[in-house]
Fold this protein.
Amino acid sequence: MVITRSRYRTATGIGTLAALTLVLVCGSPIFVDWVNSNTRSDTAGGLFLRTLTWPQWSFDSALATRDLLAQDLKAILVVVFAAVFLTVLAGAELARARGSFAAFITGWGAYIFAGALAGFVAALFAVHATLYGALTWAIAGAGYGLLTGWIIGLAQMSARRP
C-alpha cells in the first residue's frame, strides 16, 4: 500500500497540534506556578512535571525585555521547529510498516530536535547571550523533547492512514 502525501500532511498537522497544546497548556504561567508550588524536584513525577514547563511563556514578567523575548520565543520556536521536523521526517517513515512504529519514533525524534534547536536559537536573544548559555538551553530543550516527545509520537501514530 502506498502512503500518500495527504497522509503526511495529516500526521504533521496532528503532531504540530499536539506540540502546540503541550506548549500552551504546560508552559502557561498558571501551570508553571502550580508545578513549582506543588511538586518536588527530587521525585520522578516532579521531574516530569517540571520538564513539561520548560517552554514556559509569559506576558507579564519582571525579567528584562530581551530575556522575556527569549523565553517567549523559545515556546514559539518549539512548535515551529516541531512542525518543520515532522514535515521533513515524514518521508522517512516506512511504507510497509504502515507507519505505526516509524511514526512514533519520527514524532519523538522530531520533538527532541525541535526542543534542542529552539533552546539554542532562543538563548541567543537573552541579555547575556553566550555560546555556553545557548548550549545549556539546547541541552535542556533536548531533555524536554526526550521526556515529552513520546506524546508527539503517539499523536503521530494516531494520524489517519490511507
User: Anything to note?
Assistant: Residues 120 and 136 are 8 Å apart (CA to CA). The two ends are 8 Å apart (CA to CA). The chain has a mean pLDDT of 85. Helices lie at 5-26, 29-38, 44-52, 65-89, 100-123, 131-157.
